[in-house]
């Protein structure tokens, strides 16, 4: 038979009349699986063998499959040994069972190999078919929530899907609903109603907002946006009315506790939950991906199953329509996931898949050993039922009742009852809507060794059989060595600098100030300032804000006595203060921050580093603010320059030259007044002496004039006397002598006046010298007073300190890709 004819060899027809196996093979048309299939049978019915055989046929036909394995049975799909050597079987032999039967492991392995060889031969399955199976699809066992197999990261489920939002709102909305439901179920929430649950509504809107804008989310980002939603209203109500901040904080804490749990870390590593990659290798080879979930708790199983179906649905909606079987989704036990009552998170998406997957060529095969707890109405879209041996009459009655209610008029209850009642081990009733009547058949021999459920510890060896190395699994984020740039440049992962931080700004504690410092440097200026040479082709890949503690206070000092009226600004900027550490304010002085230059909001599409330590604790921040005020009070004293005698004071805003000029001005007036008194005291005496001098000078002038006149008269009389002498007259001689005496007297008067004037001039000079000495003494005294200055410290009181800025300051950093080096460079420069 051809391996690629689309006809699955599941066994041979069983004749219910004779109770014997016929030679007629049951070849099931794979396209019938597009209408899905259900397999029902008790433990030991051969259900696992049937399903393994069906999946083997799918592998031989290169049909990819996703398989959910809650019990460990599907691990057997990797145990195909074309050579049928005992050594191939021995590692998987149940040693305890062999010992119980009195056999060695080698004996048990040899017998098992022989049994398998004979069984395959009896069913006409040649070794070539086993080899074709081994060479068919890529087999991998995934262990979500564990590193035993290939780990699987669920974080990719919050990433923006490949589908455009516009035109696919309904499809993506359904994926969001399923993803959110799964996530909330993992936190322990029960009975989550997407329409009524405010938790579901909030998270769904957050994810939808991100996907609508083409933004990826991760769990950390989601937690941040729960606290600070990227929208103001939900419906007609504002967010805080619909879901108060305190309650949102509780939900965020619930998710954060899950994220912080060590047991959850394995959910965040490994291959992404990428359906296309799980169905096909990069070179296009079909894959059979087995999801082993036996180790998970009920909540974790529900989370993963819901998440997987939601992702499959979205991938499916992105495919073109087809009538051929494109892929299989097999679930080995649906008990609890599609109950008739209740609405667990998985049920909604599974029901949608049953209704819609056919159009996209995706077939669901659902198995259960519990026919009582199944939603038969939901399974009414199933085209094929494989019914094996049931445990009780109650199981049979429930199955028949369910089929009748789900497909009224299409089921011959009596005939089904008769056929089911006669079913034995490995015999199944196939009811296929594409066939005219139900068919009984016995399952063929499985090509894989059915070792039974295998444990988690055996999975590494199983994967190794098929060349799967869990260490080689594709990580969710590439890592590589980074170049350490000079401080304060922070290196980040090359090629993806924008991956740092979160798109959602972490909420600052209630009542705490929040400030956005501007990116006042260009990328080139930032690189140059921090001594980093950027490649000419360097590009800015984004902006990352890192939190810092900003403290800025204004000190206003006033003192009427000292005429003090001055203000000072104290600023400290402390990046990421350590928890519990004492802040050394003196080591973190910073140029004042002009609040007019602060950005009103962060840059669009910026990312944010997390808040931690004191910056995330309102109580610690209040303590630090009080400590900052105390520091300013202790260290904020200013020195007032004072001249107490002159009553002149100057604060720190007056320089030395100006202060000296103030002292000079104050002294000049008082000194001049005292000098004026000195001048006034000497003025009378000087005036009297000067008046006498002037009188003497006038008298001297008169005396000189009189002397001159007398002298002339004397000369005249002398001549007259001389003539009279010769004439014999005595009287003339006496008159001449009298004139001479008068001239001598006038001369004496002149000499007297001259002496008096000299005395008076000396007296005036002495007075002037005495006055100048007195004035010099006054000036010397005032010079000493002007030089008598000192500094008086004036300390602020707490009431003088006004805190203008205190809280979380977001410092912008450029994320730069420079020649393959990813750098984080501060974009803010203080004082620019």
TrEMBL record:
Every Helicase HerA central domain range: 25-78
Alphabetic keyword roster: Coiled coil
InterPro entries linked to this entry: HerA_central, P-loop_NTPase, T4SS_component
Family annotation (Gene3D superfamilies): P-loop containing nucleotide triphosphate hydrolases
Segments for region (Disordered): 487-509
SUPFAM superfamilies: P-loop containing nucleoside triphosphate hydrolases
Coiled coil residues, start to end: 679-706, 743-777
Biased composition (Low complexity): 487-497
Name recorded for this polypeptide: Helicase HerA central domain-containing protein
Species in which this protein is naturally found: Candidatus Promineifilum breve
Highest classification ranks of the organism: Bacteria, Bacillati, Chloroflexota, Ardenticatenia, Candidatus Promineifilales
């Amino acid at each position: 038979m051809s391996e690629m004819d689309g006809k699955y060899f599941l066994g041979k027809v069983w004749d219910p009349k004779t109770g014997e196996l016929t030679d007629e093979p049951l070849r099931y048309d794979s396209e019938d699986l597009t209408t899905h299939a259900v397999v029902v049978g008790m433990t030991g019915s051969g259900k696992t063998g049937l399903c393994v055989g069906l999946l083997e046929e799918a592998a031989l036909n290169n049909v990819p499959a996703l398989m959910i394995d809650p019990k460990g049975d599907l691990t057997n799909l990797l145990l195909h040994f074309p050579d049928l050597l005992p050594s191939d079987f021995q590692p998987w032999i149940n040693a305890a069972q062999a010992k119980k039967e009195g056999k060695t492991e080698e004996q048990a392995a040899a017998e098992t190999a022989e049994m398998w060889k004979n069984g395959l031969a009896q069913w006409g399955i040649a070794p070539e078919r086993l080899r074709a199976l081994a060479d068919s699809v890529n087999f991998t066992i995934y262990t979500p929530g564990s590193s035993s197999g290939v780990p699987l990261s669920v974080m990719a489920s919050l990433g923006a899907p490949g589908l455009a939002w516009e035109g696919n709102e309904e499809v993506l909305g359904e994926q969001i609903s399923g993803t959110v439901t799964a996530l909330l179920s993992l936190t322990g929430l029960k009975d989550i109603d997407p329409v009524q649950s405010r938790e579901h509504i909030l998270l769904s809107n957050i994810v939808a907002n991100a996907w609508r804008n083409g933004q990826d989310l991760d769990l950390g980002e989601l937690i941040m946006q729960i606290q600070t939603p990227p929208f103001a209203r939900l419906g007609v109500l504002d967010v805080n009315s619909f879901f108060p901040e305190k309650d949102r904080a509780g939900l965020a804490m619930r998710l954060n506790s899950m994220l912080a749990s060590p047991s959850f870390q394995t959910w965040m590593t490994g291959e992404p939950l990428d359906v296309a990659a799980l169905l096909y290798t990069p070179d296009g080879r079909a894959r059979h991906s087995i999801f082993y979930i036996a180790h998970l708790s009920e909540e974790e199983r529900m989370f993963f199953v819901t998440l997987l179906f939601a992702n499959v649905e979205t991938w499916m909606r992105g495919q073109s329509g087809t009538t051929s079987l494109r892929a299989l989704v097999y679930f080995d036990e649906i008990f609890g996931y599609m109950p008739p009552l209740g609405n667990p998170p998985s049920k909604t998406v599974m029901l949608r898949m049953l209704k819609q997957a056919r159009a996209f060529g995706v077939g669901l095969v659902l198995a259960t050993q519990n026919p009582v707890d199944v939603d038969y109405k939901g399974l009414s879209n199933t085209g094929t039922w494989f019914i094996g041996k049931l445990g009780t009459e109650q199981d049979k009655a429930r199955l028949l009742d369910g089929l009748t209610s789900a497909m009224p008029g299409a089921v011959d209850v009596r005939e089904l009852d008769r056929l089911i009642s006669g079913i034995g081990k490995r015999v199944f009733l196939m009811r296929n809507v594409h066939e005219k009547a139900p068919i009984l058949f016995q399952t063929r021999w499985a090509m894989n060794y059915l070792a039974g459920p295998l444990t988690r510890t055996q999975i590494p060896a199983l994967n190794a059989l098929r060349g799967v190395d869990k260490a080689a699994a594709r990580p969710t984020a590439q890592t590589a060595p980074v170049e350490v740039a000079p401080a304060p440049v922070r290196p980040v992962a090359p090629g993806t600098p924008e991956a740092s931080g979160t798109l959602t700004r972490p909420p600052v504690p209630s009542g705490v100030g929040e400030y956005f410092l501007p990116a006042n440097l260009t990328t080139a200026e930032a690189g140059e300032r921090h001594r980093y040479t950027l490649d000419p082709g360097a590009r800015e890949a984004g902006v990352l804000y890192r939190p810092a503690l900003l403290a800025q206070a204004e000190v206003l000092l006033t003192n009427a006595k000292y005429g003090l009226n001055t203000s000072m600004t104290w600023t400290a900027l402390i990046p990421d203060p350590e928890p519990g550490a004492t802040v050394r304010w003196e080591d973190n002085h910073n140029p004042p921050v002009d609040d007019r230059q602060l950005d009103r909001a962060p840059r669009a599409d910026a990312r944010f580093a997390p808040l931690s330590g004191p910056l995330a604790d309102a109580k610690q921040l209040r303590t630090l603010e009080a400590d900052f005020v105390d520091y300013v009070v202790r260290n904020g004293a200013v020195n007032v320059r004072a001249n107490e005698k002159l009553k002149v004071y100057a604060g720190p805003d007056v320089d030395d030259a100006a202060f000296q000029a103030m002292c000079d001005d104050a002294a000049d007036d008082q000194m001049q007044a005292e000098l004026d008194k000195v001048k006034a005291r000497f003025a009378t005496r000087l005036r009297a002496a000067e008046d006498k001098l002037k009188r003497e000078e006038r008298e001297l002038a008169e005396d000189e004039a009189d002397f001159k006149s007398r002298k002339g008269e004397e000369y005249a009389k002398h001549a007259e006397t001389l003539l009279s002498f010769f004439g014999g007259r005595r009287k003339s001689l006496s008159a001449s002598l009298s004139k001479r005496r008068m001239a001598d007297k006038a001369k004496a008067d002149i000499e007297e006046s001259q002496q008096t004037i000299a005395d008076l001039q000396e007296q005036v000079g002495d007075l002037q010298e005495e006055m100048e000495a007195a004035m010099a003494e006054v000036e010397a005294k005032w010079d000493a007073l002007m030089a008598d200055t000192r500094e008086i410290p004036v300390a602020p009181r707490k009431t003088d300190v006004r805190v203008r800025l205190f809280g979380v300051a977001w410092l912008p950093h450029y994320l730069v890709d420079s020649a393959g080096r990813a750098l984080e460079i501060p974009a803010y420069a203080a004082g620019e």
